[in-house]
């Protein structure tokens, strides 16, 4: 794999070629990736995969016209053809007065923050197989587990670079290690499935295979013999396995594209209370070894920790340069760039701060309600905030988590749900987006 310096040279060379071919401005993304994974099932090796790739994406501007192309053929001849084609495409593209590179005076200058995202590990297939074997064995050893969908372990390393024609060139490397197990409990029509997984930038931070497997097995067994419940209005507690999904819906509503298109249920709510006063949501791109840490955004702008919501108040949109221009605001350092196309927006290590109430207390105060551990489907309207999703979890009776439930639907409106939300004190930094256990009273439940 190329070094970071070599990868930066590839991106910068593509930009220089585009400028020489007549582009007024250009930027290029280069990504190199190497990954391998091993899967086992019922103790036997099931699959071994390895992949390596190098891709480059080039975006050029002719005035306010732009076009983008991508390629995995990085030979000199192929690059010449690519540049010629994308410049010709840009000349024919429609004008977009908001399009363009990020403001030159806002670009990251100097050294990027050191985030320790690359552990340099080279994990061999036998080691991955052993991790997966141990995880599945632990899951299958849980009493009540009757079958296995398998376990898998993987490792990857990637180098990401960005170069622009107005003065930015930067890159970084990151590794990723993952482990998962999925098993079934029960028999016949009463079988239930569940899983557990963990990911980390450094192999040393990955949870033990036995812990992952045991958790998968215990979750599957706990779901056996689900009860039927009548429909009604009741409190719903979102386990931290699924609570981050509510933040995901919030992100979609504050993205620059949703605001400029006026397709957000939070339109015109900037600076207003949109969550309960006890809710603060933060984005921290500088967390060492974070799953979504990054030294700069997809346009070369510096990134920094920021509060999106402070004590319930909406503090900012997520803006790339194009949406910021359209709204008459400044970009927020949340531009995200893939190999092809223009930047969008995405958070980094996003989390809702822990509340002051233990999760046990949030549950213990409920006479009759639902603890949700799985959400199904995509029944969320980003324009109105209407929310309706299939769910499974457990019944809460007189403050105790009792019988499993499945095949239910929970419904409400996100505007009301956010204002009624109470966070517990059990925040864990386990995923790219994290939230504690959350309680929302007065949701509509459709059961048997």
TrEMBL record:
This is PmbA protein. It holds the Pfam family PmbA_TldD_1st. InterPro entries: Metalloprtase-TldD/E_C, Metalloprtase-TldD/E_cen_dom, Metalloprtase-TldD/E_N, PmbA, TldD/PmbA_N, TldD/PmbA_sf. Residues 231-447 form the Metalloprotease TldD/E C-terminal domain. Residues 112-153 are annotated as: Disordered. GO terms for cellular component: cytosol. GO terms for biological process: proteolysis. Belongs to the peptidase U62 family. GO terms for molecular function: metallopeptidase activity. It comes from the Bacteria. Residues 121-224 form the Metalloprotease TldD/E central domain. Residues 26-90 form the Metalloprotease TldD/E N-terminal domain. Residues 119-139 have a biased composition (Basic and acidic residues). Gene3D superfamilies: PmbA/TldD superfamily (3.30.2290.10).
């Amino acid at each position: 794999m190329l070094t970071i310096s070599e990868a930066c040279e590839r991106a910068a060379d593509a930009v220089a070629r585009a400028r020489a071919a007549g582009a007024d401005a250009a930027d290029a993304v280069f990504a190199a990736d190497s990954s391998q994974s091993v899967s086992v099932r019922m103790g036997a090796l099931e699959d071994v995969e390895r992949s390596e790739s190098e891709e480059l994406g080039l975006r050029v501007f002719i005035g306010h016209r732009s076009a983008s192309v991508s390629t995995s053929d990085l030979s000199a001849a192929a690059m010449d053809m690519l540049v010629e084609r994308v410049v010709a495409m840009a000349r024919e593209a429609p004008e977009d007065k908001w399009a363009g590179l990020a403001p030159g005076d806002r670009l990251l200058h100097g050294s990027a923050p050191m985030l320790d995202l690359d552990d340099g590990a080279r994990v061999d297939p036998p080691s991955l197989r052993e991790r997966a074997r141990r995880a599945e064995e632990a899951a299958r050893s849980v009493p009540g587990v009757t079958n296995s969908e398998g376990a898998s372990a993987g490792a990857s390393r990637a180098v990401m670079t960005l170069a622009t024609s107005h003065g930015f060139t930067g890159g970084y490397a990151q590794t990723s290690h993952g482990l998962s197990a999925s098993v079934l409990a029960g028999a016949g029509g009463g079988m239930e499935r569940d899983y557990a997984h963990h990911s980390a930038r450094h192999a040393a931070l990955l949870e033990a295979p036995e812990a992952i497997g045991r958790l998968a097995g215990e979750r599957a067994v706990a779901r056996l013999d689900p009860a039927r419940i009548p429909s009604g209005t009741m409190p719903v507690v979102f386990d931290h396995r699924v609570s981050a999904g509510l933040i995901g819906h919030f992100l979609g509503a504050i993205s620059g594209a949703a605001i400029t298109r006026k397709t957000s249920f939070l339109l015109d709510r900037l600076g207003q209370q949109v969550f309960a006063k006890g809710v603060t949501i933060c984005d921290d791109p500088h967390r060492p070894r974070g799953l979504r840490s990054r030294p700069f955004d997809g346009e070369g702008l510096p990134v920094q920790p920021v509060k999106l919501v402070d004590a319930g108040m909406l503090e900012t949109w997520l803006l790339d340069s194009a949406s910021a221009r359209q709204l008459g605001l400044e970009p927020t350092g949340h531009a995200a760039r893939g190999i092809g196309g223009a930047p969008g927006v995405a958070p980094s290590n996003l989390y809702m701060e822990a509340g002051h109430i233990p999760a046990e207390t949030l549950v213990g105060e409920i006479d009759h309600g639902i603890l949700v551990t799985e959400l199904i489907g995509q029944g969320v309207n980003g324009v109105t905030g209407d929310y309706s999703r299939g769910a499974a979890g457990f019944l809460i009776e007189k403050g105790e988590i009792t019988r499993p439930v499945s095949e239910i639907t929970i419904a409400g409106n996100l505007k009301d749900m956010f204002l009624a939300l109470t966070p517990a004190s059990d925040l864990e930094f386990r995923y790219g987006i994290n939230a504690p256990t959350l309680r929302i009273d007065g949701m509509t439940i459709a059961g048997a």
